[in-house]
Amino acid sequence: MTTNKQFSYAGMTLTRGSTNYDAKHSWLVKNLIRNKSLGVLYGMPDSFKSFTTIDLACSIATGRKYHGEITQQGAVVYIAAEGQQGISRRIKAWERTNNLLTNDLWVLGSSMPLNTPKAQNDFIELIKQLEIAKKVKVELIVIDTLARCMEGDENSPSDMGKFVRACDFIRGATNSSILCVHHSGKDINKGARGSNALVASIDFEFKMKRIKGDIAVMLINTKQKDADTAPPITIQYKQVDLGITCEEGLPITSLANLSQHAPDTRNGISNIIDIINKHPLKSMTRHELNQALFPSTSKIQDSDRQKIKRALDTLIKKKLVTIEKKGVNSTKADIISIIH
């Protein structure tokens, strides 16, 4: 269709000038994952990459908020290329912790070379048939891990480019977002492993940073195309008894996110110390504190922000808390910690 603001020919559409400049972002997980986007979550071994990805996937499948951020509920297809049983137990731990069933989370317990035409077409057809049979809309596809689902050399720009184009083709055909779980190199500060063609092509990226001496990590948003990066999220994990035993009769356990169950009631500004003390790490980002104080409010009023600021200033003067600023001015990522 040709209009004053666009021109179409042979299946291609041109838009005039700044047309659509005011289009609003549509989020799968508010401020973290946009609809129909492609992203990567990477980290070192034992940085809880899969646990955190499962946490996100379960939140989307059930429509539960993720660390206070609204999710768009929809079905999730999880490619567990490193084995299904371990993933299934981690999902069960999430279900027991949250008292919810993840009926719209579907696990494929084998790898697929997604950058080959046959695998792409078979996988797209699998998604379409699932949506018809179960009357659901798949909103997120998880590829865990990228290396197990890619044919070729991840260090090759050409091979990595083929993988990215395959992901683009799949998400276009399914109208879904794709999240790839990936490894970092030996130096996590140098980013995800392999060719830079990956990070140059994705819409969002998360880095997992393990907190020493604890079963906890920081989820750090290192890239967010056309939007501000989200503040870091501190995630504390706990052991969960799955209600089954091994051959020796010992309980089988897994891990689940404890941080999701931080105080979710508006207790007032005077309870800042209590709220931070209840956090497993005795510290929170400014964003996390705001959400704990005002969980039912999507946007905090300026008057309430001033109250928080005055309360924090008082606590600093009394040497009860410290604030580690992440910029010249106050930001959501500032770390507020109890002084012991």
Automatic annotation (TrEMBL):
<protein>
    <submittedName>
        <fullName>AAA family ATPase</fullName>
    </submittedName>
</protein>
<dbReference type="InterPro" id="IPR027417">
    <property type="entry name" value="P-loop_NTPase"/>
</dbReference>
<dbReference type="InterPro" id="IPR038724">
    <property type="entry name" value="RepA"/>
</dbReference>
<dbReference type="Pfam" id="PF13481">
    <property type="entry name" value="AAA_25"/>
</dbReference>
